[in-house]
Specification:
Blueprint: H1 2-18, H2 26-48, H3 57-67, H4 73-76, H5 80-106, H6 111-134, H7 143-170
Helix pairs in contact: 1-2, 1-5, 2-5, 2-6, 5-6, 5-7, 6-7
Length: 171
């Protein structure tokens, strides 16, 4: 729900401050960058709570071996509904990050480069959040989660880039 509300707020802010067909508005760019910063703070807050990092070598060694399980295997042991909910949760949580980064990249002179850099930033953000969970007892880092989170961010990027491309083409 929070991810959907954040995406709706981002779309509203973009339409309010960006102007139809005019995405090169410094205020909207600043709002998008603030949105990225707030999303990252929220992401670290949600994924790393309660912040009781365990850094012993034995703990980390056991956790790293658990990281390389078969894709979706952690979802297998729950109900189908729980698994579907978790897949959607991971993807939808990262969509606003991708959307905001695409909006910022769209305004750059070398748009293709910045869209590629933004896609990489989404994947790195997901990797950092999952890696941090390796150090947290009670949390489970998973390569599947990293992939789903990255896909969600990339989907948000594609939706916003497509929307901005249509707005730019229509004006």
């Amino acid at each position: 729900a929070a991810a959907g509300a954040g995406a709706a707020l981002g779309i509203w802010l973009a339409s309010r401050f960006g102007g139809r067909g005019n995405v090169n508005n410094p205020l909207s760019m600043q709002l998008a960058l603030w949105g990225v910063s707030l999303w990252l703070i929220l992401g670290f807050t949600v994924f790393w709570f309660p912040y009781n990092f365990e850094m012993s070598q034995a703990f980390l060694a056991a956790r790293v071996t658990d990281l390389w399980v078969a894709p979706l295997s952690n979802y297998y042991y729950s109900s189908e509904y729980r698994a579907a909910t978790e897949v959607l949760h991971k993807m939808l949580f990262f969509m606003p990050l991708g959307a905001l980064l695409a909006y910022v990249a769209w305004q750059a002179p070398s748009r293709r480069f910045w869209l590629t850099a933004s896609a990489l930033a989404v994947a790195i953000s997901a990797c950092i959040l999952e890696f941090g969970q390796l150090l947290l007892p009670g949390k489970y880092a998973d390569m599947t989660d990293w992939l789903l989170e990255s896909l969600g961010g990339w989907l948000g990027m594609m939706l916003v880039a497509s929307l901005l491309g249509k707005l730019h083409h229509d004006s």
